[in-house]
Amino acid sequence: MEKILVPVDGSESSDRALKRAIELAVALKAKLSFLYVANVNQLAVNSCLSAELLEAVNKAGEAVLSHAEESVPEGVESERLLETGSPASAIIDVAEDSGADLIVMGSRGLGLVKGVLLGSVSQYVVENAACAVMVVK
Questions:
Q1: Which domains does the chain have, with CATH numbers?
Q2: 20 to 30 A from 127, CA-CA: which of 15, 51, 94, 101?
Q3: Phi, psi for 130 (deg, rounded to 5)
Q4: Measured between alpha carbons, how far is residue 19 from residues 26, 40, 85, 95, 105 in Å?
């Protein structure tokens, strides 16, 4: 196992998944890829997103990704990815495109504005990912 994808959103469930992913990365000497998905599809009203709203969503994502990276101990390689769109689809696409061996994610996330990882998202990922998935409660 060389690459672990960790979708993050700043929720408690996401933080528990982050902790578990770091433990695995240390033990396996794997690379961590932190993914924040801004669910702008649900924020769009009449298909128009203001530049200010998009900037705020991206800023929130950068803060969550920074928190994730700050948790990584020295010697563990990590990268940060910021995507927009449907969280479930984005997680699957990024996992496939990056060659992730494992996805470690929380079972529930924050609300709409913070970049959601809902229970239905984790269920979708479990059912559709080509790689192994660990859902952390």
A1: 3-136 (3.40.50.620)
A2: 15
A3: -80, -20
A4: 11, 27, 25, 19, 10
Give CA–CA dist 93/19, Å, rounded.
Answer: 23
- For the chain, what is the mean pLDDT? 87
Angle CA(25)–CA(12)–CA(55) in degrees, nearest 5? Answer: 90
Strands (E), the chain: 3-7, 31-38, 78-84, 102-106, 132-136
Q: What is the mean pLDDT of residues 61-70?
A: 96
Rounded distance between C-alpha atoms, residue 104 and residue 126, angstroms: 10
Q: How many whole angstroms separate alpha carbon 65 and alpha carbon 31?
A: 15
Report the C-alpha dihedral over residues 112, 113, 116, 120, rounded to 10 degrees.
10
Q: Give residue 116's pLDDT band: very low, low, confident or very high (50, 70, 90).
A: very low
Identify the CA nearest to 116 among candidates 40, 59, 19: 40
- Which tens digits make up the pLDDT trace of 22-53? 999 999 999 999 999 987 665 554 445 667 77
Tokens in use for 77? 């390689």
